[in-house]
Design a protein that fits this description.
The complex is a heterodimer of chains A (827) and B (276).
Chain A lengths: L4 H9 L2 H4 L3 H15 L1 H14 L9 H6 L8 E3 L7 E5 L8 E4 L9 E6 L10 E11 L6 E8 L3 E8 L10 E8 L4 E6 L9 E9 L7 E11 L8 E4 L4 E6 L4 E3 L2 E6 L5 E6 L5 E4 L5 E3 L4 E4 L3 E9 L2 E2 L3 E6 L20 E5 L21 E7 L2 E7 L3 E5 L12 E7 L9 E8 L12 E8 L9 E6 L12 E8 L4 E9 L23 E5 L20 E7 L2 E7 L3 E10 L6 E8 L5 E7 L3 E6 L4 E10 L11 E8 L3 E9 L21 E5 L17 E9 L2 E15 L12 E7 L5 E8 L12 E7 L8 E6 L12 E9 L4 E11 L1
Parallel strand pairs in A: 13-22
Antiparallel strand pairs in A: 1-11, 2-5, 3-4, 4-11, 5-10, 6-9, 6-11, 7-8, 7-10, 8-16, 12-15, 14-19, 15-16, 17-20, 18-19, 20-21, 20-22, 23-32, 24-25, 25-32, 26-31, 27-30, 27-32, 28-29, 28-31, 33-42, 34-35, 35-42, 36-41, 37-40, 37-42, 38-39, 38-41, 43-51, 44-45, 45-50, 45-51, 46-49, 46-51, 47-48, ...
Chain B lengths: L6 H19 L10 E7 L15 E3 L6 H5 L3 E2 L6 E3 L5 E10 L2 E5 L1 E3 L9 E8 L6 E9 L2 H4 L6 E7 L6 E7 L9 E6 L10 E8 L2 E6 L2 E6 L14 E9 L15 E13 L1
Parallel strand pairs in B: 3-6
Antiparallel strand pairs in B: 1-17, 2-7, 4-5, 5-6, 5-17, 7-16, 8-13, 8-17, 9-10, 9-16, 10-11, 11-12, 13-14, 14-15
Classes of the chains: A mainly beta (827), B mainly beta (276).
């Protein structure tokens, strides 16, 4: 059994749209039903109308009529007066004076029928509606359509207009609905689905129209008559909306077939006519499995398959119903397991074990739902039996359920249906929010799918779910609906309740997040009471998220709260350059989340997630190195984003840098090796070999020689790369094992050392130059770092007797500052 | 089929009034005696769902330039979803509302260009036509010189065009140099109490050196002669045959939400006779 996927999607998103918005449609359907079964009421009104003198009967041709062997075929209903034998009766509950004959406004001739639709609460009646019928039947079999002209005092859609309503069985009723009218006269057509059946028809015309937007108006109808028109397209018929429907049913189940007719009007558009099933001939391919009666009611007789089809005048209708009967109903032999949770920890919707809360209904019979409900009792246990289930709503609004002190949802189910790998059962919880209305924008819901692996045929299954797993529920303070759907058409249900298993997690922090202590000059703050935040930041931009965002005060500390997180953006008030910052700091608290990521976003968008450890029922402070957000342009941060689930509290979201000074406060430590083991280029500890230059003219860097605590140091600024040359006095380091150097940088993200050997020819080029570069990507900043690199690491440096260049490379390119000291080779 | 002139609507409207008035009066006709012999036909025999004879027909594919010159909406394909035999000796061209190649409708247009042309004779097709606002079926011919001389120099004979919002009315038209688009020579044929989708009707021209006679079933409703056109008479060269359903366009207006889809043009046969 497949439900309409669109409908189910809608249901998942906003169940309310199913509950309230279709009521007016059903209202009228119910009215229609009531017409059919309230004959005596009409009879009464009819009599009262006789007193009004509104029944206009002609008598001139009575004798002729009596002479006829068959019924008259007079096509006229209302041309300028009631045609022969025509009567009028208003529907019960309608304004009985809504109809009158108008001799001022008409399409043709001298009069028209005027219908004054009352206002919604008019004391005279809630709507306009009535039937024009004859006492003696007419033979309409030589016509193919009822036609009329209509106009209205304003643009409106008339709920229903048709014929075949005879205040009795209404056997051959046909009608069009939501008929658009405006202030211009237009011609309307209602095709006769199968004219040859109408040899004795008394229902000539009927209408019903409720106020439009609660207000009344007037419409006129003229030239009402049956015609035989060649300008109409051939009639087409369908059942079940033209679909080939498959239903799994059990013996004893019934299913109503519905049909409609369609014809192409002279304007080229199709018009659908709702018509009674009497127009159709129904056939079952296998009456021993399922029978279908003249009214299209299918009754399942036995196990097997039967296909129900229909035809009209030997033209097959499009669509069919295939009944796949599993045979005699299989019902549970045993009652459901008796709940053991103490009653004081339970809010029960349906169980014999507890006092249940008031429930509006256990089946809303919503539009497109095929679900049927029976109350059954097994061994004294009351059970809800759902059959033909596609989806069904259980609703409790008087009052809604406050389950904030509960932490689990329980339901027992039993199915006779075969379980396949694609079988599933879905449970949707709906919270209507503080407005207690399905309208409004504070509704939230979450659906859990129970997979086939957790379903068993013909045994009671206790489904017991933590309420936290319904993570889309922004609140469970105003629960109002449980919606059951899935692929099991037969489901027995018992023991629906919310309960507390004693470990309800605290949902919100009792203390504020720790107050940050970093200097404001080192911070760019997004959200914190401790700093001036970026102005103009939107903490709830509409990115289509389901997350509910609020700010709560915890110990007088503003805290950001995300409820029912799916994802949530933060649109910074302005683009931020955080490239000189080092960390993103966040304080977070969540007892319910099982997944939480934070993203930084730069234009593109370029975004990178960082996973936060959850849940945590204490405040967690995290300092995320900005280098973790690879791919993001740190000089242009425009947004933050969180995704995951649960309810999250956030505070002190800011970027910061450690306050690193720009210059060493002291010298590097003196080397300890003896002079004999060392070839030094730059150190006050050793005798240094000649160096041509500490900054070649092809370098991209500035050089200063400075003194720190009396210790001479080379300071490179704006470093991209710098060349240090010993070309004039090339160094033979073949007897050495290491290259050493002390480096201090406030900002180098990357620092590289390249050593070049000019080879045996002792000259640049010549084909024998060798070199190797080693890069350091995580040099500690703000402190002297002693680099001691085995020369074997300079793998490309296969000759070492003519060392002529040392090249230093820094990133950020052209912006790196480094101080160096104690540059030497050693054994 | 190529129309690019807004005057066209007004023009045809006037003719419609005149013609409808004439319809009821013009009950007897004297048809010229002509003897024809069948020289070419496609009876559309073949199995259900199979494609059309490639020795008789080729396909126009796509949406042309500016919707085949008329702002048409459909994308023409050669898929059997859009053009196929029905197994009961009919050709079915089907216009569908579906997203395909960036267009919202698909249909088909087939032609005998490069396969068969005729100069003079009786050209007829027996068809049930599609209907609905914005639906534009046509049975028509183009001069084979279109590839060298272009349109309208090549000449165009529209044996039948129908606007789907008027299921009871067709047009017969010629276009040529100086009398194309809105200035074409055209005439309406309409039923007062019937329509073109419920039953088969035969649409035909009888074409000779100095006349083109237009027929629906056995009714001659229009004769066009060199005196009727305001430019050169270009109907003295071989023409090829085209069948198609367009959706939307300047001539027909545009489909609405209420236009029923799919729409089918059911062709029993296309036959060409020569006078003996």
């Amino acid at each position: 059994m497949k439900s309409n996927p669109n409908i189910m999607n809608k249901l998942g998103e906003s169940p309310s749209s199913h509950i309230f918005k279709n009521t007016s449609f059903y209202h009228h359907l119910n009215e229609l039903k009531s017409w059919r079964f309230s004959y005596f009421q009409y009879k009464f009104i009819l009599n009262s109308l006789v007193l009004f003198g509104l029944i206009l009967t002609g008598c001139e041709r009575d004798e002729e009529d009596l002479m006829r062997a068959s019924f008259p075929s007079n096509p006229d209903v209302f041309i300028d007066e009631f045609s022969q034998g025509l009567n009028y009766a208003a529907f019960g509950g309608s304004d009985v004076k809504a109809f009158d004959v108008d001799n001022k406004t008409f399409y043709k001739g001298t009069t028209s029928m005027k219908i004054e639709v009352p206002d919604k609460d008019a004391p005279t009646g809630a709507y306009a509606g009535g039937v024009y019928f004859t006492s003696t039947g007419r033979d309409l079999s030589s016509y193919n359509a009822l036609t009329f002209w209509a106009k209205a005092s304003k643009s409106a859609n008339i709920d229903i207009i048709g014929f075949g309503n005879d205040l009795g069985a209404n056997k051959y009723q046909a009608s069009i609905s939501n008929v658009p009218v405006n202030s211009n006269w237009q011609k309307y057509y209602i095709i006769i689905p199968n004219p040859q059946l109408l040899t004795n028809e008394r229902g000539m015309f009927f209408f019903s129209e409720a106020p439009e937007s609660d207000r009344g108006y007037t419409f006129w109808i003229d030239e009402v008559k049956f015609e035989n028109l060649g300008t109409l397209g051939a009639n087409k018929f369908s059942i079940m909306g033209g679909q080939d429907i498959v239903r799994q049913l059990e013996t004893g189940s019934t299913l109503q077939v519905y049909g409609e007719a369609k014809a192409n009007l002279p304007t080229g558009i199709d018009q659908v006519v709702q018509c009674t099933n009497s127009y159709f001939s129904f056939t079952s391919s296998n009456p021993s499995v399922a029978t279908v009666d003249a009214n299209g009611l299918i009754k399942v007789m036995d196990k097997g398959t039967a296909v129900i089809t229909a035809s009209v005048n030997e033209v097959n209708a499009i669509g069919s119903v295939t009944i796949e009967s599993s045979g005699a109903p299989v019902t549970p032999e045993n009652s459901a397991p008796i709940p053991m949770v103490p009653a004081d920890k339970v809010i029960s919707v349906f169980s014999n074990a507890y006092t249940n809360v008031p429930v509006d209904f256990f089946n809303g019979y919503w539009q497109f739902s095929t679900t049927q409900l029976n109350d059954i009792n097994i061994n004294g246990d009351d059970i809800k039996r759902y059959s033909q289930l596609n989806f069904v709503g259980i609703q409790f609004t008087s009052p809604t359920i406050d389950a904030t002190s509960m932490n689990r949802f329980h339901i027992d189910v039993w199915t006779p249906d075969n379980i396949s790998s694609s079988s599933e059962l879905k449970l949707l919880l709906v919270d209507v929010g503080a407005d207690l209305s399905f309208e409004g924008n504070d509704n939230s819901s979450h659906e859990i799918t129970i997979p086939a692996s957790q379903l068993t045929k013909e045994s009671w299954i206790s489904i017991d779910l933590p309420l936290s797993s319904f993570s889309g529920l922004a609140s469970r303070k105003h629960l109002a609906q449980i919606v059951i759907s899935g692929s099991l058409p037969n489901l027995f249900v018992d023991n629906i309740y919310f309960y507390n298993d004693g470990v309800v997690p605290i949902e919100s922090p009792s203390t504020a997040a720790p107050t940050p202590s970093r200097s404001a000059t080192d911070v760019i703050s997004v959200f914190s009471d401790a700093y001036n935040n970026i102005t103009g930041t939107d903490f709830n931009p509409n990115w289509g998220q389901a997350t509910q965002v609020s700010q709560v005060n915890i110990q007088n500390n503003a805290t950001l709260k995300y409820s029912g997180l799916n994802y949530q953006g933060v649109q910074l008030g302005s683009s931020q350059d955080v490239s000189n910052m080092q960390y993103l700091h966040i304080d977070y608290w969540t007892s319910t989340s099982s997944l939480l990521n934070v993203y930084l976003i730069s234009p593109g968008p370029k975004e990178t997630p960082y996973s936060l450890q959850v849940p945590s029922s204490t405040w967690q402070s995290i300092d995320i190195p900005l280098s973790a957000f690879t791919n993001v342009n740190l000089s242009e941060i425009i947004q933050l984003k969180f995704d995951g689930n649960g309810t999250i509290f956030l505070d002190n979201i800011y970027f910061y840098k450690n306050n690193v000074s720009n210059e060493p406060t002291g010298p590097a430590s003196d080397p300890a090796l003896p002079q004999a083991d060392v070839i030094s280029l730059f150190s006050e500890k050793y005798a240094n070999v000649p160096v041509d230059t500490w900054r070649t003219d092809w370098s991209a860097a500035n050089l200063e020689s400075i003194s720190i605590s009396g210790n001479e140091v080379k300071k490179y600024t704006s470093l991209d790369f710098v060349g240090i040359e010993t070309v004039m006095n090339q160094i033979d380091v073949s007897g050495m094992s290491y290259f050493s150097m002390d480096v201090w940088s406030p900002n180098a993200d990357k620092f590289g050392i390249k050593i070049v050997d000019f080879g045996a020819d002792g000259a640049f080029g010549g084909g024998d130059d060798v070199e190797h570069q080693i890069d350091f990507s995580s040099l500690s900043k703000g402190q002297w770092v002693h680099l001691d690199i085995p020369l074997t690491d300079f793998a490309g440096l296969i000759t070492k007797q003519h060392i002529a260049q040392i090249i230093l490379v820094g990133q950020p390119t052209g912006a790196t500052t480094v101080y160096i000291d104690n540059v030497y080779f050693h054994k | 089929m190529k129309h690019n002139h807004p005057i066209f609507y007004i023009f045809t409207f006037i003719i419609a009034i005149i013609l409808f008035e004439n319809c009821s009066v013009d009950t007897t006709q004297e048809l010229p005696a002509r003897n024809y012999t069948l020289v070419w036909s496609d009876e559309f025999d073949g199995s259900q769902g199979s494609s059309i004879s490639s020795s008789n027909w080729t396909f126009d594919i796509g949406n042309g330039v500016n919707g085949w010159g008329n702002g048409e909406y459909q994308f023409y394909t050669d898929r059997t979803d859009n053009v196929a035999l029905d197994g009961s000796s009919n050709l079915i061209i089907t216009a569908r509302r579906e997203t395909y190649a960036g267009h919202n409708f698909t249909s088909a247009r087939i032609k005998t260009e490069g396969k068969f042309t005729t100069k003079f004779g009786r050209i007829e097709a027996r068809m049930k036509l599609p209907v609905g606002p914005g639906i534009w079926p046509a049975f028509w011919m183009l001069g084979e010189s279109i590839s060298s001389e272009g349109w309208p120099l090549c000449g165009e004979i529209d044996i039948m065009e129908l606007r789907g919002q008027e299921p009871n009315v067709i047009n017969g038209t010629v276009h040529g140099p100086g009398y194309s688009g809105g200035n074409a020579v055209t005439k309406i044929f309409g039923f007062t109490d019937d329509r073109f989708d419920n039953d088969y009707h035969i649409f035909a021209i009888e074409w000779g050196e100095d006349y083109i006679d237009y027929f629906v079933d056995n009714t001659l409703y229009q004769r066009i002669t060199p005196d009727d056109v305001s430019g050169d008479w270009v109907f003295d060269q071989p023409f090829f045959i085209i069948l198609n359903i367009a959706v939307g366009g300047n001539y027909v207006g545009f489909p609405t939400e209420k236009t029923p889809f799919p729409q089918q043009m059911i062709v029993d046969y296309v036959r060409v006779y020569k006078e003996i």
